[in-house]
Design goal:
The complex is a heterodimer of chains A (243) and B (217). With 243 residues, chain A is α/β, with parallel strands linked by helices. Chain A has a domain at 2-86 and 157-240: P-loop containing nucleotide triphosphate hydrolases (Rossmann fold, 3-Layer(aba) Sandwich). Helix content of chain A is 39%, strand content 25%. Chain A is built from 9 helices and 10 strands. Chain A is globular. Chain B has one domain (1-215): Orthogonal Bundle (MetI-like fold). Chain B has helices spanning 2-44, 49-64, 67-77, 87-112, 116-124, 129-159, 171-182, 185-216. The longest helix of chain B is centred in the N-terminal third of the chain and has 43 residues, at 2-44. Classes of the chains: A alpha/beta (243), B mainly alpha (217). Chain B: One of its GO terms (biological process) is amino acid transport.
């Protein structure tokens, strides 16, 4: 349902994506791993048009991603995003955060949106926080609200941009737990992450990106357990055994 | 001192007429400058180059002309161009336009202080530019903008006295008229000063309240 074909992207003189070709099937969980600055997040941000790309083509459900075309709204309502720094709206309550998109973008009825919003908060284990404001919550709680906000759009896929990187270590598990459940329920997910355990257990496929190209890709277990490329081997060694 | 009390009783009612006009000029030009300032600021952050440049040049032109010259222009020059304004209209228009430049820069600073992640989150749930502004950016920018906005209110209250230069009989001009006909300069201008101060104090307290609230977040 998501297809990238020879996607190039430069920031000024620095080319961060040097021809990315990949696809994500419906119901698939794809983890993107790689060193920082390798272009992982940029790929996600190009898929929902937060970033433009210079060359190549990205399609979502057959629709070409073009951040300046009106169709981008359609794509964004189908492909939600969860950010590293949560980006919840601090001036609105947790429940209002969740129903903001359904109410104001999809123009759903208030009753229906609120009902589903509450159900989603229960699903991420935060039913009792509905009326709190985001700054009152821990990072892990905020990220689970952000996942509920993404789900409220009833998307066909969710993009996760390092969803646990800004969390205290003891809070990471809650968020990964929610994501694991989503994967089990068949949600299509593209996850940029440094959580190798999550990638190994949950992902169908792993892409290893370095220097703006896909160095290696394949089933999660084979890429992570028997990496073929020396750069993948080197990266995994440093991530898994930092000392 | 006894003379002062006597003068107060005598002049206070006339000066109150001036206060009424001062308040009308201040509120009128405050509203106008707020609306214009918002428009300039929105043009500035619209991401459309032509609009943003137009707004930037407008702001600079307005900032570069003294208020008093702007007032003279509206009141004395516009009739030559076929547009006749009453003194009050010209005062509100002139002060409103003059202050719209400062309002715009203040609003823009508030809007640009909002974390980029907020805008991306709004976009990621399919919000367009206007919806993002209305639902996400402006409600948060208001908290940042309110304290300086309060300061602008105080400055506008005092600068409304410039309307006296185009014959609006607001507080300052009313005082000047009484003083020049009675020669009781001390009593009259002390009264005028006290009356401006009395109107400023609630605004000063309001600014302090805004600052406390903004500091909480």
């Amino acid at each position: 349902m998501i297809e990238l074909n020879d996607v190039h992207k430069s920031f000024g003189k620095v080319e961060v994506l040097k021809g990315i070709t990949a696809s994500v099937q419906k119901g698939e969980v794809v983890c993107i791993i790689g060193p920082s600055g390798s272009g992982k997040s940029t790929i996600l941000r190009c898929i929902n048009g937060l970033e433009s790309y210079d060359r190549g083509e990205i399609n979502v459900e057959g629709l070409k991603v073009d951040r300046d075309a009106p169709s981008i709204v359609n794509i964004r309502t189908q492909v939600s995003m969860v950010f590293q720094r949560f980006n919840l709206f601090p001036h609105r309550t947790v429940l209002e955060n969740v129903v903001e998109g359904p109410l104001y973008v999809k123009k759903e009825s208030r009753g229906q949106a609120l009902e589903r919003g509450r159900a989603l908060l229960a699903q991420v284990g935060l039913a009792e926080k509905a009326d709190a404001h985001p700054p009152q919550l821990s990072g892990g709680q905020q990220q689970r609200v952000a996942i509920a906000r993404a789900l409220a759009m009833q998307p066909k896929a969710i993009l996760f941009d390092e969803p646990t990187s800004a969390l205290d270590p003891e809070l990471v598990g809650d968020v990964l737990g929610v994501m694991r459940k989503l994967a089990d329920d068949g949600m299509t997910m593209v996850v940029v992450t440094h959580e190798m355990g999550f990638a190994r257990d949950v992902a169908d496929r792993v892409l290893f990106i370095d220097g703006g190209v896909i160095v290696e890709q394949g089933p999660a277990k084979s890429v992570l357990n028997q990496p073929q490329h020396p750069r993948t081997q080197d990266f995994l060694r440093r991530v898994l055994h930092p000392l | 001192m006894k003379g002062f009390w006597h003068d107060t009783v005598e002049f206070f009612p006339i000066l109150l007429n001036g206060v009424a006009l001062t308040i009308i000029v201040t509120i009128g030009s405050l509203l106008l400058s707020t609306v214009l300032g918002l428009i300039w600021a929105m043009m500035r952050v619209s991401g459309i180059k032509a609009l943003s440049m137009l707004s930037a040049s407008l702001i600079n032109v307005i900032r570069g002309i003294p208020i008093i010259v702007l007032l003279f222009y509206l009141y004395f020059v516009m009739p030559d161009l076929g547009v006749t304004l009453s003194a009050l209209q010209a005062a509100i228009l002139g002060l409103g336009i003059a202050y719209s430049a400062y309002q715009a820069e203040n609003f823009r600073a508030g809007i640009e202080a909002i974390d980029k992640g907020q805008i991306e989150a709004a976009q990621s749930i399919g919000m367009g530019w206007w919806l993002t502004m209305r639902r996400v950016v402006l409600p948060q920018a208001v908290r940042i903008v309110l304290p300086p906005y309060g300061n602008v209110m105080i400055m506008m209250l005092k600068d409304s006295s410039q309307a006296s230069t185009i014959t609006v009989a607001e507080l300052a001009l009313q005082g000047k008229l009484i003083a020049s006909s009675t020669f009781k300069n001390t009593s009259v201008f002390t009264l005028v000063a006290l009356m401006y101060l009395t109107m400023s104090i609630p605004l000063i307290l309001l600014v302090r309240h805004f600052e406390k609230r903004a500091g909480k977040r």
